[in-house]
Automatic annotation (TrEMBL):
<dbReference type="GO" id="GO:0046933">
    <property type="term" value="F:proton-transporting ATP synthase activity, rotational mechanism"/>
</dbReference>
<keyword id="KW-0813">Transport</keyword>
<feature type="compositionally biased region" description="Basic and acidic residues">
    <location>
        <begin position="112"/>
        <end position="121"/>
    </location>
</feature>
<dbReference type="Pfam" id="PF00231">
    <property type="entry name" value="ATP-synt"/>
</dbReference>
<feature type="compositionally biased region" description="Basic residues">
    <location>
        <begin position="147"/>
        <end position="160"/>
    </location>
</feature>
<keyword id="KW-0139">CF(1)</keyword>
<feature type="region of interest" description="Disordered">
    <location>
        <begin position="101"/>
        <end position="160"/>
    </location>
</feature>
<keyword id="KW-0472">Membrane</keyword>
<protein>
    <submittedName>
        <fullName>Putative ATP synthase gamma chain</fullName>
    </submittedName>
</protein>
<keyword id="KW-0066">ATP synthesis</keyword>
<dbReference type="GO" id="GO:0045259">
    <property type="term" value="C:proton-transporting ATP synthase complex"/>
</dbReference>
<comment type="similarity">
    <text>Belongs to the ATPase gamma chain family.</text>
</comment>
<keyword id="KW-0406">Ion transport</keyword>
<comment type="function">
    <text>Produces ATP from ADP in the presence of a proton gradient across the membrane. The gamma chain is believed to be important in regulating ATPase activity and the flow of protons through the CF(0) complex.</text>
</comment>
<dbReference type="InterPro" id="IPR035968">
    <property type="entry name" value="ATP_synth_F1_ATPase_gsu"/>
</dbReference>
<keyword id="KW-0375">Hydrogen ion transport</keyword>
<dbReference type="InterPro" id="IPR000131">
    <property type="entry name" value="ATP_synth_F1_gsu"/>
</dbReference>
Amino acid sequence: MAGGQERILRGRIRSVQATKKITRAMELIAASRIVKAQQRVAAAVPYSEKITEVVKHLSDGGAVSQSPFLAGRSDVKTTCYVAITADRGLCGGYNSGVLRATEGRSPQGRRGGQELHDRSGRPKGRGLPPIPRIQHQPALRGFLRQPNHHRCGGNRTLRR
């Protein structure tokens, strides 16, 4: 083998080995994040169960059927889609699925003559091309790291 080709092959081998190390480090980081996410989900289970219990209790008592927020409406003029996309790591497949689902629902509104709105919660969702005939609203930046009422615009009123 000529000296030049051997040097090129050694360089490629070093490059592949370096990529392997980086990939391994990314796997370890992802594994630790999964464990933390699973712990947060487990911590939210009692809250979810209590909410389910409260709503079931209200519906059994007939209070839910009287709520204007839960009553069906035939005169819907505006529909808002909140696409929550990820902005870290290798999240392309997840983001594509979320936005494909959003696009899949949007024709329903167009056929019904509804005005459609979209609010993407993450930078990668905002960076994608807009869905035709849907008004894009300003996104909620950094909201999902530590969500609370005030950070998501809880003091603003929604207009119909």
